[in-house]
Structure formats: C-alpha cells, structure tokens
C-alpha cells in the first residue's frame, strides 16, 4: 500500500453548505418555517401538550339537615331528626339517610319460636338440634319443637324475643318526606405538584349566600336537596325510598392554572350505583339493623330497627394543568470554535437576481 493511500485513511470528509444571500429564497424559507411552527403550536394548544398535569388530592365532609314526623306501624307518630335518620355511623366520603323502617318493639332475652321457613318447620323435638344455628338463624336452638301458630311448628331458640317477623318494607316508604332534606357538601382539594389549594365553598360564598342559594339558578351552590340529586340520577325518590339504594355524587375539578386562561371550578353530576331491579338481583336495595336499649323494671329491653335507606357516595375527580416555560439550548463549544467551524463548513455566495 502506498504512502498516499495511508494518508487517505486519515482524512475526514464532511458536507459543505452554500449560503445564498437572497431575499427571495430567504423569504420562502422563513415562510415555510413559520407555517410549520404555527401548525405545531396549534396542535399543542389543541391537545394541551404545552402544559404539565397533576392529579387531585381531596377530602369531603357532609352535613344533612331536615326534620319530619312519620307514623310507624305498631309504634305511632314519631319525630325524626338527623340523629334518627342518619344511622349509627357515617363512612368516609359518604352519608346515609333512612327512608323506610321495620320496627320490632319490646324485645327481651328469652326463648321463643324461630321464624318459619321452608327448611325450619319441625314436627317433633328430634327435628331440632340443641345448640345449632346457621346464617339465617335469629338465635341458638334449644332442642325443642314448639308451636309458632295454629298450623306451623318451629324449633325453639334462645334469642331476643319476640323475633322480627316482617320481611317486606312498608309501601309507601315511612320516611318519604326525606326527599326534601338537604345536605351541605364541603370539598377541599389540593394539587401537590403546584401547591394549589381550593374548596367548593368559594370565597364569595358567605353565610347569607349559603342560607339562600339554590341549585336551580346557581350550579355552584354546595347545598343539595336529596330529591333533586336522585332525580338528576334518573330515578324516582318515592320508589327508591322503599328498599333503598346507592347514589353517586360526582365532583369534577378540571383546572387550568395558566394566568391568561385561569379556571378552577367544580362540576356536579349524579348517578345510581346499585342494581335497582328486584328481579335481577338477589338482595336489592340497601338496609341494615340497629337497636335502641332501655331498662324496664330492671330488665333490659330493646327496640329493633331494620332501616332501609339511600347511601350517597361522594367521588372527586380532577386534574390541573400549568404552562411549561420553553428553554433555549446553549452551544457545547466556545463562540470562537463555533464561528471558525461555521466559516469552514458554510460558504456564502450572492444571488444577483433582485426579484423577490
């Protein structure tokens, strides 16, 4: 191999640019660049890719108000306030309102016949097992077969007697007037990435506003009528109140924190969350039991309530966006090295044609 061939291996080739000094060609170049940049900006604005996103962190508290008088079968007229119809406890981000009830009064610890069922009827004591119970039992079997009514006999149990016998809730619902109860929803949100905090009770909402606001003419009012929420979920309150159910309260925060288009307000919507058709589900509606105890002549008694009602679950969704500043890139070389490289790589020539 010759010496010239070896030197050829040590050479480096690069492309050379010719810079044409032309108003006509320069205008065309920058017009195309401007069109491309405009298209990119429009697409970024359309898809909001120029912003940074953060998901919401939320807390919710509720306060239900309303009083009604209802006649309970076997009990008589009774005034119900928030302590009566709210149930024994409230879950996080939800509240419960009793709309119907079955009452069993004057229960005492003792022995009594079990409630008749297809597999609970007996003929003799041999049909009853002492100490037995199952998931449908109201007590522990004593081993005796006793008369329940004129035609039927059941196994005797140790239980709270008399045992609750009614299974179907009253129609119409005992507390149908709960439709007019109201609830104040207090929702605090935070976007951690931007340390942004807001609540659905806005600064302009004072006590006078909260006493008079109505969602019919103000979509930001945080006080809701129970009947209106059920109606907006596409349901009939009077029908739903009989067996109960679950309504979802959806609060959506779609916030834009850019100063030139700032917006961060809640939007409310409602939907039913449980299966409402009795013929399509084994246990329709929603119910639970609780008792109130008292002493009568030194003996503890209780009143058992099987409460049917509507649970309202508050679910908060949202995200926020904020503008990201564009960064200008810097050269990796010194100005002197960069200029020298450019002069060698780029050759400038003049375009003698004057027409633009």
UniProtKB/TrEMBL annotation:
Topology relative to the lipid bilayer, per the entry, is: Multi-pass membrane protein
Q: Which GO terms describe its biological process?
A: bleb assembly; calcium ion transmembrane transport; membrane depolarization; organophosphate ester transport; pore complex assembly; positive regulation of cellular component organization; positive regulation of interleukin-1 beta production; regulation of transport
The role this protein plays is: Receptor for ATP that acts as a ligand-gated ion channel.
Q: Origin, by domain of life?
A: Eukaryota
Q: Give the transmembrane ranges.
A: none
Which terms are listed as keywords in the entry? ADP-ribosylation, Cell membrane, Disulfide bond, Glycoprotein, Ion channel, Ion transport, Ligand-gated ion channel, Lipoprotein, Membrane, Palmitate, Phosphoprotein, Receptor, Transmembrane, Transmembrane helix, Transport
Q: What is its subcellular localisation? A: Cell membrane; Membrane
Entries under InterPro entries matching the protein: P2X_extracellular_dom_sf, P2X_purnocptor, P2X_receptor, P2X_RECEPTOR_CS
Give the catalytic activity: Na(+)(in) = Na(+)(out); K(+)(in) = K(+)(out); Ca(2+)(in) = Ca(2+)(out)
- What are the GO cellular component annotations? plasma membrane; postsynapse
- Establish whether keyword Magnesium is in the entry: no
Q: Which organism is it from?
A: Anabas testudineus
- Listed name of the protein: P2X purinoceptor
Q: Name one GO molecular function term.
A: extracellularly ATP-gated monoatomic cation channel activity
Pfam families, from UniProt? P2X_receptor
Q: Does the keyword Cell membrane apply?
A: yes
Q: Which family does it belong to?
A: Belongs to the P2X receptor family.
